[in-house]
Amino acid sequence: MRRRELLLSLTALVACPSLALAAQRPRRKEAAKHFDWTHPGVRPYTGSDEQAFASLASGGLIPPHVLAPLQDAVRNNAGYQDTIPDGYRFTRMLFGSGSRVNNVVAHTAQWPAEATRAIVRYEYRLHEKVYVLLRPSVCGNWALRILNIQGVCIACVDCAQDDREEIKREQAALQRRRGRKKRH
Q1: Which of 46, 103, 164, 175 has the greatest number of beta carbons closer than 10 A?
Q2: What's the pLDDT tens digit per position in 144-160?
Q3: pLDDT digits (tens, 9 = 90+) for 156-165
Q4: Distance set, CA 81 to CA 6, 20, 122 (Å)
Q5: 56 SS3 class
């Protein structure tokens, strides 16, 4: 049987070389819909904050009238500390000298134990959307999340589905933030 398969392959190669070779080429993998962040701190962001804001907003992700209050919050150090849970999704993240990647999923359970999960959050709410700028302490990268009012990420390609755990985390963060504001 093996010999017959070999003879058929050789016959096909002689008769129509391009078709025979095309059939043997490995198929391309489908493009990933998200980037798995499993190695924190490998390429820390080295650009300026202004460059980060411009890059995060490019493509119309953040309207100018939303970007300005977020920039003010960063300049005034008006963010608050939070942690990155396993499976946390970012709409866009900047790293290195300004490279950017969309639809990032943080797999913090796979991070080394000594890698901090701390993050600073800056938020601005407009109508039914919440724009969140984030700065993970582990790398100094800048990241963006765009959520609906229930806390579901709405700008990611593959995370528009109703993620109950993510909603719970976002609602808990909102409750913590409200509790801090009442104390001040």
Answers
A1: 103
A2: 998 887 777 766 644 43
A3: 644 433 344 5
A4: 64, 59, 9
A5: helix
Cα-Cα-Cα-Cα dihedral sign, residues 119, 142, 102, 91: positive
Does residue 142 surpass a pLDDT of 60? yes
Question: Could you give the strand order of the β-sheet that contains 142-148, starting from the edge strand earlier in sequence?
Answer: 35-37, 99-106, 88-95, 142-148, 129-136, 118-126, 80-83
CB atoms within 10 A of CB 37: 26
Locate the domains of the chain by residue range.
1-30, 35-183
DSSP structural state of residue 59: G
Q: How far apart are CA 126 and CA 134, in angstroms?
A: 17
Residue, of 28 and 36, whose pLDDT is higher: 36
Averaged pLDDT of the chain = 75
E-assigned strand segments in 38-114: 80-83, 88-95, 99-106
